[in-house]
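Design review, sub-item: ligand-bound model
Attendees: FS, YL, KQ
YL presented the inputs for the NAP complex:
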Amino acid sequence: MNRVLLLGRSGQIGGAIERALRDAVDLTALSRAELDITDPVAVSACLKELQPQLLINAAAWTAVDKAEQDSRECDRVNAIAPGLLAREAASLGAALLHFSTDYVFDGSGDRAWTEVDEARPLNAYGRAKLSGEQAIRTLHPAHLIMRTSWIYDVNGSNFLRTMLRLIAEREELRVVADQYGAPTSADAVASAVAAVLAKAGGALWPYFLSSGGLVHCACRGVTTWHGFAQAIFREAKERRLPITARNIIPIATKDYPLPARRPANSRLSLEKMETFYGIQMPNWQDALKKALDRSQQGPPMAGMQQARSA
Ligand SMILES: NC(=O)c1ccc[n+]([C@@H]2O[C@H](COP(=O)([O-])OP(=O)(O)OC[C@H]3O[C@@H](n4cnc5c(N)ncnc54)[C@H](OP(=O)(O)O)[C@@H]3O)[C@@H](O)[C@H]2O)c1
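KQ shared the predicted structure:
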């Protein structure tokens, strides 16, 4: 079994990867409390002790708006730490899998961004994530960077959970309808990671060296945040979850000002994922249903308690 070290286990993608890989690999999964990726001494000691064949970094600063005021801290986690991880992993012969974001793009046009398109981030978070990608490319020959978009899970702080709460609390919701992208469940990303590892088999370093690089990894299809909110509303209704909302009103980004600018076009091309890696990503509506099914089978998530006990 491959020895795999996963960082960021308490995050959305980290948690999903832990669930997806725990029976397939010899997995050590650490949270920020167990390893702070910005601490060079701790990172070096941890990697030397565990000697992983693959390091998966799902840890990141994801507070996009807060990054505008605190870009130094965001840089430490998203730009500098990936370089540190890359240097240490490469020196020990561990392949590296890392995550990046649609927010490296400026959102112009309306076609799906490919891996060779030029990245021009609009905000501090996107700039830091792009620097992190560049550090990995420079320092680690056997890496794979997966850029994903609009992540949600049944745990954590995300659009799905916020919408389920607001649908239960408010009569009217106003949601941005001029940003386009693909809502992507953390489980869909974790399944893609598991599929890549299955392809690599026991030859992680050679596989990442020859077939690694950069790949876009999101659910299929496209919608807006407003379209996603409507789909969540329909699912909530079908599942008889608590609903107060009567109206979900589409609004423009300019009518919902936030500190960080967001790209209007976050579509990610899946062509490389499908043709080169042979991995089919699920449609975003199917992934949403699956995530809600999982949450209804497991411990109740916020906004679902009432329906479950009814
Ligand atoms: N969320 C999205 O919509 C989205 C979209 C595109 C790409 N991505 C990328 O996907 C990856 C995973 O995102 P996610 O949504 O799963 O993030 P998340 O839920 O916010 O989880 C990030 C994890 O990183 C941990 N972390 C933060 N600083 C750390 C540090 N200094 N040392 C160790 N761990 C640290 C956090 O720990 P604490 O909980 O203790 O703070 C948290 O568990 C990231 O690379 C992100 O940039 C996310």
